[in-house]
Amino acid sequence: MKVVDLPKSVYFYYQNYEEIKQSDRDLIEEIKAIKKDNPAYGYRRVYLELKNSGWKVNHKRVQRIMQEQNLQSKAYTKKSRKYNSYKGTVGKIAPNRLNRRFKTDRPYQKLTVDVTELRWGDKSTEHRCYLEPVMDLYSGEILSFNIDLHPTVYFALKPLHEALKALPELPYRTTVHSDQGFQYQHHSWVKELKEHHVFQSMSRKATCLDNAAMESFFHLLKSETVHLYNYQSFEEVAQAAADWISYYNNDRIKEKLGGKSPVRYRLLTTEQVA
Predict the structure, then answer these.
(1) For this UniProt entry, which segments traverse the membrane (predicted)?
(2) What is the pTM of this model?
(3) What does each C-alpha distance from 261 to 104, 139, 144, 252 come to in angstroms?
(4) Is residue 265, in this structure, part of any structural domain at all?
């Protein structure tokens, strides 16, 4: 009888080779199904989706399979151009109450807003519109938003009014954070906050990291919409942004939320507190 000096792990691997191959095939099909619904997912979010579905699999195995099958995300290669609404001191400049303390354990305690450009059309005939969301920093949920062709004060006020009007009765005051854009210095903006007994907070001038949470959101949205598709009209890009925000709120899982979407996380955590 011939003895082969073979490591025990290798021996058992080949003993179960066919079973492992079948398991890989099943996993590949599951990963492809996840990627079909979420084309921008990298291996970390795919791993979390698998975990949520009851799969017992190592994240390194998921990464290996996605590399072998060419299923990696290609959504985050373009750089976004930042819209700047600063026009000098034209109204009230509020203190930076948030001071980059983005985390909170209470829903609706810290909200943040900002405006970004969304572009459509060919390079020779490129057009732009503007998006302003209101984000709850508790879960990253977008509470309201507006999309329009002109970034006016009224354009900015509309989603703020909708978000504040829908807030439940809270045992603490809400803070709304923004940059120093002309819309946020306007007396109408300040009045809206005062009427709802809300604190106003502003980033320092030309310091985008003071509103890093919203900058990150804009990067995600653009990487998974306007950078992937060539929209040809305002209606197309506006609908795509609205659809993506709904997907982001309700279905797009986040690692820091334990593999849950923003809405799912809020519902689960507030139910536990109640």
Answers:
(1) none
(2) 0.77
(3) 17, 8, 16, 5
(4) yes
